[in-house]
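Trying the structure run again after the queue cleared.
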Amino acid sequence: TLFRSIRRQFEFSVDSFQIILDSLLFCQHCPDQPISETLHPTVIGESVYGDFDAALNHLQNKLIATKNPEAIRGGGLMKYSNLLVRDFKPADKEEIKMLERYMCSRFFIDFSDILDQQRKLETYLQNHFTGEIGRA
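Done. Tokens:
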């Protein structure tokens, strides 16, 4: 059998944005419908975090927030560490303490073997930090 996993659409509020281009694509496939003042494509931005304004505020102010890290493969621990390295700060300093425990727990559940942990860390570092040494 083929194993497939469905990845959560976002890990943190700052990576929860999606751009919906459906009407733009529809207009391209219907050339017989001329664009007019009443019929024109729209581009929609949304946040699957659930609160667009909060997610935008987090992005603009480099704040870290998530929901249910235990539902994220690896708990979001690597991405969380990446955000900290990039000078993001927790949006809620009290809540993040609890979320950090969930992130760590989920990481060790998903990668229970020390070799799996090492591989995950090395792969993440290689994929996300290659070429950044020496950059300020």
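Residues 1-5 have pLDDT under 50 and may be disordered. Worth checking whether this holds up in the mutant runs.
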